[in-house]
């Protein structure tokens, strides 16, 4: 019996053990499932990425923007080569925008600045400052500096004689503002470096540029012209920068159009149409920020704009309404001065806005739809080239060569965007003995060698043979390409015409079109690093309109550049950029050898019984939206305010919640600051506010900030002042309660 009980107990124990194990297994399974479910609920969803493919290369991206506005009084504006066109106020401020991309082993920096062009002197001074701050991180090979080519930026930042003559010399406060502004934009981009992604997109913008030298363009081979629908580049290309969450950081864009919507009668500092495109795009992205502030940076860079004008209504004889002469752009009555091209607006301000708005809107469309992501490593290739001594082989028996710099007679004729003086005409292949005689007496004749080299250009100034007090033109020129994945930026040292740009893009693409560079998108960035005027095709050069007469290294200039840029592209494709010869370094002339024709301003004087900041012409008590509020103050010379970067000479303020809030500064499109220079130190300042239709109703005032200079014995005293208008109301109708 004892044995039977024992066996029954063992069987029960076994059953209980099996049941326990089964229950334990089920419990563990349920706990595991529950734990996995809870864990999955805790995991955040992956951020939405604009494209399906994950990034192959993790880029570090930094963007930065800084004010580079210099003295806004007395200093010549750079572009129309008119020393009488000196600054007299602010239409919009000038900014430098910097974009840094790093792939973990290599880094490139692209700067687009609201300046007429990047001079060799400006580039060298910026690179020196960057070296002091960052060592060898930012160098001549991986830094591209491009000017937007506004013709209403400040002059005075060149070291070669011709440019110093037309700029009234080397003006330290002007170039110092540019250098400091550019370096500060780089500092901001450098500090803001963080992981991000880059997308590219391109499209067509039809209604914003016109070829101003169609006769020259038609001299290009017919079979080449037949490959293109238009005689200007309508292509706009954008780079979209985002962080890893897809939030926008910046935009960089290229479109071929001259920023000459603001014409040669303008006296206010202005960033012109490309500057307006940046302004509009940034204001759209930086909600709640004043212009020039906010994290998003939108750079609109110049491209192959040599013959591309924003004056899309074209040139007409203003005194008759008839078309201008097709070859030399002149009129039967009034000559070339009567042949003027007009933009789409009623005046230059409206034309600037319309062209800039067109570019900005197209860029926004491309930015929103950009889905092609860049992957791959970064490369940079750079050389200095002596462009006066380049040989170009055409075949096994024939070669061409470049020339010492020289400008033709048609250079002095100007363009339909801004005509020159006297009786010079575009399309001149004969020259003029009268002007040649004056030239010979003043600076000497060109050598026979130079005349032969430049044919059919009749030489007006043989600048390559003129070295007093310093060389009149550069001989050593930068050529440079940077690539980010399958995107190549060709940095060119001047103004390439439409067809010149097409040829150089095609040549670079052919060299890069292998391995990871297959189907590379190539853009031309204009007015980079050194300024060498224009670059036409050989065929366009034969016509000798303004652009051909301004192609300073002769008829084979483009061929020489194509040869050099092919070499850079090949070195990038073959990973041999380290073997490229650096070439001869350009000079950096001592400042004591550079001249300055701008005198220090005299001491300021206020009219009798008034003081600085007093109101001479008061605002009205009420304005409707769409009207212009205007006030005039007793003012000092704006040059006495010194470095005006990151400041404002104007505010428009709205009274709200018992305090005045700034709604506009002198960086705003809606404000204009006019400085009116009087005699013996007396001057006024008129501030205009073009009240936008969207302005909030309420009470406003306008303020002007400045400084005046006084002399007491041998002591100069600079004193700040503020002028304040009366308060006034803004309403949508004069019938208000």
Task: Describe the structure in your own words.
The strands form 10 sheets. Strands 1, 4, 5, 6, 8, 10, 11, 12 and 16 form a 9-stranded mixed sheet that branches. This protein has a 7-stranded antiparallel sheet with strand order 7-2-3-34-35-31-29, with no helix packed on it. The protein is α+β, with helices and mostly antiparallel strands. A hairpin with a 5-residue loop joins strand 34 (671-677) and strand 35. Helices cover 25% and strands 28% of the residues. The model is unreliable at 1-21 and 30-55 (pLDDT under 50). The chain is built from 14 helices and 38 strands. The protein starts with a helix and ends in a 6-residue tail after the last strand. The longest helix has 41 residues, at 2-42.
């Amino acid at each position: 019996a004892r044995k039977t009980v024992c066996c029954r107990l063992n069987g029960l124990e076994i059953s209980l053990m099996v049941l326990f194990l089964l229950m334990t297994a089920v419990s563990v399974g349920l706990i595991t499932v529950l734990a996995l479910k809870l864990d999955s609920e805790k995991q955040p969803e992956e951020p939405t990425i604009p494209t399906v493919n994950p990034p192959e290369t993790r880029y570090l991206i930094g963007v930065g923007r800084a004010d580079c506005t210099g003295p806004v009084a007395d200093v010549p504006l750079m572009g129309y080569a008119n020393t009488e066109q000196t600054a007299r106020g602010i239409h919009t401020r000038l900014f430098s925008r910097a974009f840094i991309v790093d792939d973990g082993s290599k880094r490139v920096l692209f700067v687009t600045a609201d300046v007429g062009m990047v001079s060799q002197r400006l580039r060298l001074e910026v690179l020196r400052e960057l070296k002091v701050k960052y060592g060898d991180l930012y160098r001549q090979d991986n830094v591209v500096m491009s000017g937007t080519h506004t013709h209403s930026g400040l002059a005075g930042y060149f070291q070669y004689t011709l440019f110093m003559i037309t700029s009234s010399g080397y003006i330290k406060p002007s170039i110092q503002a540019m250098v400091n502004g550019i370096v500060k934009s780089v500092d901001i981009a450098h500090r803001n470096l963080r992981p991000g992604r880059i997308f590219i997109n391109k499209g067509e913008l039809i209604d914003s540029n016109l070829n101003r030298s169609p006769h020259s363009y038609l001299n290009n081979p017919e079979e080449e012209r037949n490959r293109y629908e238009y005689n200007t580049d309508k292509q706009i290309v954008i780079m979209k920068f985002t962080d890893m969450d897809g939030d926008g950081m910046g935009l960089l864009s290229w479109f071929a159009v001259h920023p000459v919507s603001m014409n040669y009668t303008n006296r206010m500092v202005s960033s012109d149409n490309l500057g307006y495109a940046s302004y509009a795009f940034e204001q759209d992205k930086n909600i709640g920020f004043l212009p020039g502030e906010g994290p998003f940076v939108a750079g609109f860079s110049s491209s192959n704009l040599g013959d591309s004008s924003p004056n899309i209504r074209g040139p007409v004889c203003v005194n008759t309404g008839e078309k201008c002469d097709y070859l030399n752009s002149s009129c039967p009555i009034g000559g070339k001065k009567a042949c003027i091209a007009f933009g789409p607006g009623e005046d230059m301000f409206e034309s600037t806005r319309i062209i800039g708005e067109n570019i900005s809107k197209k860029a926004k469309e491309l930015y929103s739809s950009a889905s092609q992501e860049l992957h791959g490593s970064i490369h940079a290739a750079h050389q200095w080239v002596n462009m006066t001594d380049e040989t170009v082989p055409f075949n096994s028996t024939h070669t061409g060569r470049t020339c010492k710099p020289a400008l033709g007679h048609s250079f002095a004729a100007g363009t339909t965007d801004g005509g020159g003086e006297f009786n010079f005409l575009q399309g001149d292949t004969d020259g003029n003995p009268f002007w040649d005689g004056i030239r010979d007496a003043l600076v000497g004749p060109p050598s026979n060698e130079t005349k032969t080299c430049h044919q059919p250009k009749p030489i007006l100034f043989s600048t390559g043979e003129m070295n007093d007090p310093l060389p009149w033109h550069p001989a050593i020129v930068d050529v440079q390409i940077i690539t980010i994945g399958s995107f190549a930026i060709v940095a060119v040292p001047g103004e390439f015409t439409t067809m010149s740009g097409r040829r150089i893009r095609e040549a670079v693409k052919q060299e890069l079109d292998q391995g990871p560079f297959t189907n590379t998108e190539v853009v031309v960035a204009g007015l980079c690093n050194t300024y060498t005027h224009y670059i036409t095709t050989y065929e366009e050069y034969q016509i000798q309109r303004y652009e051909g007469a301004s192609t300073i290294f002769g008829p084979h200039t483009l061929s020489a550049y194509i040869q050099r840029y092919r070499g850079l592209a090949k070195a990038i494709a073959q990973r041999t950029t380290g073997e490229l010869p650096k070439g001869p370094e350009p000079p950096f002339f001592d400042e004591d050898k550079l001249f300055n024709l701008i005198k220090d301003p005299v001491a300021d004087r206020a009219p009798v019984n008034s003081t600085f900041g007093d109101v001479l012409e008061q605002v009205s008590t009420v304005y409707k939206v769409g009207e212009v509020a205007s006030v005039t103050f007793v003012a000092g010379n704006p040059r006495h305010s010194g470095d005006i970067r990151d400041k404002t000479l104007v505010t428009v303020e709205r009274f709200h919640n018992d305090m005045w809030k700034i709604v506009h500064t002198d960086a705003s499109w809606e404000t204009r600051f006019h400085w009116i220079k009087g005699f013996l130190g007396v001057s006024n300042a008129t501030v205009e506010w073009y009240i936008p239709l969207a302005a909030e109703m309420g009470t406003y005032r306008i303020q002007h900030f400045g400084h005046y200079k006084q002399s007491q014995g041998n002591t100069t005293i600079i004193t700040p002042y503020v002028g304040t208008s009366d308060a006034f109301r803004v309403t949508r109708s004069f019938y208000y309660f």
